[in-house]
Amino acid sequence: MSNKEKKHLIPALERGLTILMELNRHHREMSFAEIVKRVGYPQSTSYRAVQTLEHMGFLRHHPVTGLYSLGVNVLKLGFEYVASLDVVQVGHPVIESLCEQTGCSSHIAVRDGRDAVYVARVGATNATIRRVSVGTRIPLHCTSLGRLLLTDLSKEEFESLYPDDQLLNKELGAPIRRDVLWNLVQEDRQRGYVIADSYYHFGISSIAYPLYNHDGVVEGVVSIMVPVHEFAEDERTKLQTLVQEAARTISDMLGHDQALAKRDD
């Protein structure tokens, strides 16, 4: 930033935001002396900034320990922001990186009624798998990816979504009874992910992990697809870890980590 541009900055605002940024997950509580040391401002200047932030609810002063931590208004701003973010908006750069790391086509899907809808896709350069385009709809019970999208439903919600005991069996191997599907979904929920071989497309393996939003609700699923003959046993753990990390990154960007931190407090 040039000196000309710097002259338009507001020093007091800059000091206040610097203090807030110092209070992060690695330094969740600090004394006033620690704040002064870390930000490098004069004690009197830091005191006025801290008092202002506390008055506005952006800092909390513990009455017993005397330590400062982020106030509720910081969380409020954060939750309002992440609540406005779209899973495609935050997730697409992540699955681009996932595709580069794995060499596999990567996807994000969400639930729409009883269908899984692909809302983002990054195809591997040398992919031999039949293209799954954005907008493709697949019945939830016909795919392992789709089952993950059902994992946060209660039994009542699940039965409301599937009122009939019999399911339309559009794919070989898909469950045809509601109770069977429910049991599979519970196994997926307990496991926390799905690795499937030739479940929806013969010869195609997939790894899928759920995406959680700021309310802790399953917002979508991230997955990769790879031909079974390229899915060697010694590669599975590595690929699974990469998909899991991508799912965690997207969930954190949607505010899931903030929700967990708020519950911990």
TrEMBL record:
Pfam families, alphabetized: HTH_IclR, IclR_C
This protein's record includes keyword Transcription: yes
Entry keywords, A to Z: DNA-binding, Transcription, Transcription regulation
Keyword check for Coiled coil: no
IclR-ED domain segment(s): 73-256
Any one GO biological process: negative regulation of DNA-templated transcription
PROSITE patterns named among the record's database cross-references: HTH_ICLR, ICLR_ED
Record-annotated HTH iclR-type domain positions: 10-72
Database matches in InterPro entries: GAF-like_dom_sf, HTH_MetabolicPath_Reg, Tscrpt_reg_IclR_C, Tscrpt_reg_IclR_N, WH-like_DNA-bd_sf, WH_DNA-bd_sf
GO MF terms, alphabetically ordered: DNA binding; DNA-binding transcription factor activity
Protein name (Swiss-Prot/TrEMBL): IclR family transcriptional regulator
Species, as recorded: Halomonas qinghailakensis
